[in-house]
From TrEMBL:
Native source organism of the sequence: Engystomops pustulosus
UniProt name for this protein: Uncharacterized protein
Domain of life: Eukaryota
SUPFAM superfamilies, alphabetized: DNA/RNA polymerases
Listed InterPro entries: DNA/RNA_pol_sf, Hepadnavirus_pol/RT, Rev_trsase/Diguanyl_cyclase
Length: 93
């Protein structure tokens, strides 16, 4: 299912995003971690949204039968403009 967040994005204050470097990522690796792979390609989809904030990212879908179903995100949606910055902040803690 694809959810277009274009209308929501009009109300989001943009924060400049700075991607972490490989050297800052390697500083987070524990000592004696002799085998490690860091793949951030899809990592944004795993950034959890606090349960109290999930209600702000709800949407409704109308089925072919005319029934309305409601959903809410538990992780950052890819179209949300701040998901990269929020993920970076949670990663650097």
């Amino acid at each position: 299912m694809i959810c277009n967040l274009k209308e929501l994005n009009k109300f989001v204050l943009y924060i400049k995003f700075k991607m972490e470097t490989v050297s800052s990522a390697s500083a987070l690796i524990q000592c004696q971690a002799f085998m490690c792979t860091i793949d951030l390609k899809d990592a944004y989809y795993h950034g959890p949204i606090y349960p109290n904030s999930q209600k702000f990212l709800r949407f409704a879908v109308l089925s072919p039968e005319g029934e309305e179903a409601h959903f809410q995100y538990k992780a950052f949606p890819s179209e949300y403009p701040l998901h990269r910055e929020l993920f970076r902040r949670s990663w650097s803690r």
